[in-house]
Each structure stands twice: as structure tokens, then as C-alpha cells.
Amino acid sequence: MTEEYTASKPIYVQIADRIIRGIVRKELQPGDKLPSVREMAIQSGVNPNTIQRTYSELERMDIVETRRGQGTFVTENEEVLSVLNEKVQKEVVEQFIHNMKELGLSKQQMIESLEKYGKGE
Amino acid sequence: MIRFQEVTKKYGHGTALENTTIQFKKGKIYGLLGPNGSGKSTTLKMIAGLVIPSSGTVTVNEEAVTRKIADKVAYLTELDMFYEAFTVDGMISFYASQFPDFDRKKAYELSEFMDLDKNKKIKHLSKGNRGRLKLILTLSRNTEVLLLDEPFSGLDPMVRDSIVKSLISYIDFGRQTVIIATHEIDEIEGILDEAYIIHNGRIEGHCEVEKLREEEGLSVLQWLKKKTAGGSREE
Hints:
The structure holds 2 protein chains of 2 kinds.
Chain A: H1 11-24, H2 37-44, H3 48-60, E1 64-67, E2 71-74, H4 78-102, H5 107-118
Antiparallel strand pairs in A: 1-2
Helix pairs in contact in A: 1-3, 1-4, 2-3
Chain B: E1 2-11, E2 14-24, E3 29-33, H1 40-48, E4 55-60, E5 63-64, E6 73-76, H2 88-98, H3 104-113, H4 127-139, E7 145-149, H5 157-170, E8 177-182, E9 194-199, E10 202-208, H6 209-216, H7 220-228
Helix pairs in contact in B: 3-4, 4-5
Domain ABC transporter (chain B): 2-225
InterPro entries (chain B): AAA+_ATPase, ABC_transporter-like_ATP-bd, P-loop_NTPase
Organism (chain B): Rossellomorea oryzaecorticis
């Protein structure tokens, strides 16, 4: 089935986020080739122009590079990848803290909750 | 570019389209959204030269639309019109004989893509496969304008999915202008560049799909609901 997209973000950004997560999870390795624009459009159920925008955006962020006549590849630049890793982790942590704050928890309580979870309680 | 200039279409006492001025830019994919009876089909038929405006003008690439526009416009009707005794292959040959721009190779490729047996008789096809065949015949024409009237109507999710995938695979993005009239948006939202809402024969809204998310945080479906909320329609 074609994938679902949330309303709050442009679709090209959501697809870029998915690719970034794939890279962070190592499902996509440095130097791996991304599907062609048309293939990716079919997989994602979206207009190829949207994928073109996704790839351009990733290229602008130095996460991928397009080699003429060959396609689009995940960067092999270690520094870019480690910055990316940290950035994604930071986003996840921020989201977690935001959610916990909404529940009215203090920083101390969040730490306790995490420790408890870590011990499997 | 397709232009409607102050177009009105009346049927007897009813008005299907009222004083409408809109345009569809070359190479874009448009959704024409709205409930049944809102004027979507009438709009498409006027581009296809099958309905003549009561007043105003419709032009395709600056040429006033007449029935001869069929050379330049491929139209998928919401109705199901086939010769029952023909095979799929026979229907493909018939289309090829009617439209010089018909690409047989593409039709066979599409049949394979959609897993449709070309030796099967049309009367033995399931509803889903009839829907697929309609799309194959329309997409196999090399026209600048492609009009699809309710391509998903009454079809199950698997068929819808294969239709969306074949649209993405076989539309010539950037060259073909595609207008898809539908009230089922989920499937096609991702392939649209822009959308118009039509309601009671009037254009009630226009959006660029990605901008809508970026600026208003709305999906096309949410936008449609917001725009048409509370509006009852006259029959």
C-alpha cells in the first residue's frame, strides 16, 4: 500500500526524514545508492517532483550526493554522518522531554523514570 | 495551458457550472475535488469537447475547444463503455485504430504492470480489471492533456493502489497536464501538485498541495472538509 503522510509537514520533508532515519539506523550505509527518483516515487506513492525536492534538500544538507549519470548516493563523509546521528538523537530526546513536560513531570522525575525503565521495572 | 473564461453551463433549469474562470498549467497534476453533482464531470467534459458551455470560453493551448480536441485530450469517463465481446487485446487494437497517438507498446507494458490478461474477454473481467483496462487505454495515448473522471470509483484498495502506481510510472510529468476528478482523495493526495474544490457549480478553493501543509498544516482532505463544512448542496 502507499504510505500515509501527516498533515503538519510537507510530504517532501517527511520522505527526507524517513531516509535520514534509515541512515541513522544503518539500514542505508555510507555510499549506498538511493532508488531513482521514479522508483522512489512509486514506492512512496507520490509525485516524482516531490522526490526530486527531497533529494535536492538532502543534497543541500550534504547527506547525499548526486553523481552525474549514476544516481544519488549516501555520503561517505564520517563527520556529516556523526553530526546527523547526534541531530536525530537530539530531536528524539527533545520530543521525549516535551511529552514528559506535558505530563507535568520535573527533570528529576524524568531521570528517575528513565532509570526505572532501564532496570526493567 | 487550459483556460476557462467566465464559463457557465446550464442544463434545463439547473446550473452545472456558474461563471467560472480557472486555469490549469501545463505539466501539473490537478485534483478536482467535490461531492457528487458538484460540477466536476461537466468541467472535464467541457475540456474534452463533449459539453459546450452555455456562455464563456474554454481553450486548450489557446485553441477554442470543439469536439476535434479529442486529438489532444485523453479522457477517462466515469462510465464503463466497452464492447463486451472484445478481448482486452481487441479493445487495445480498437483504440489504436481510433487514435493515431495511441502507443500499443505502452498499452501492453501497462497490462503487464497491472497483471491484466490481454486474451481475456471483456465480459469476463471483474469490475476491478475493467477499471484497470479503462486506465490502460487512457494512459496509452500520448496526449498533452489527460482527464480522469473518478478513476477509483467503486474499486477496492488493491486496485486503487495499482492505479496510483501506474499513474506515477506512466504519466509524463512536466509535459502532460493531468486533471483527476474525484471525491476520494487519500489515494492521490501525494501525486497532486494543486487542487481545486468545486461545489454547487462554483470554484470554492484552490491550493498548492505542499504549500498547504507548509503554511496551514492541513492535508488536502482536511482542507476540503474545512472549505465545504456546513455547505449543503442543491440537487
